[in-house]
What does this fold into?
Amino acid sequence: MDIHNEIRPHSQLLKLLFAFKNKVGAVFKDILGIHEINHIAITRVGIEQEIVIFSSTPALEFNLFNSELWRYDQTYHPAWFRSGVQTSWQSLYSPARYDELYYLKQIKHHYPIGSSLAIRQDNVSYIYSLASKQSCSQTQEIFTNQSDDFRKIGLYCTNQLQDLFITCDNLASLSKPKELKQLIPMDSLV
It folds into this structure.
């Protein structure tokens, strides 16, 4: 059974990762550097079960989804993201594709420390993925113990990006085939 049969990437996810670069960059520049954060991505799994992501490093998510490796990253597994916990990236990688995920997400982008935190609001799941280029014990401790601060940072960014999430929802509804409905002339209703 495919663990991802419930969720799927937005039909235009790969384009959307880069489409709003200026707006997304302006939001994330406010928090990059806080608690040694060098990367942040906000993932939303909406009511339609579609994944939309805004990232400070969009190439990371582009390569993850373009290669289909996201299917082996438990970050996108409903059982994990609906749990509302914070977990290190390395513990979310499926053993079958661990090396590929570790290379793609951490080595290639120089993020020795990465963590994801999931929350739910109004039947919508948000995943806050954060990473650091630092690997010292102080940064490891921050990434282990600052889940409340990371949650606040994620909520701030989510609120700032809400209009872009709505834009993505509208794009998704435009790309869905319309149901054909029998047209009833207005004068026949009188």
Notes: The two ends are 53 Å apart (CA to CA). The chain has eight helices and six strands.
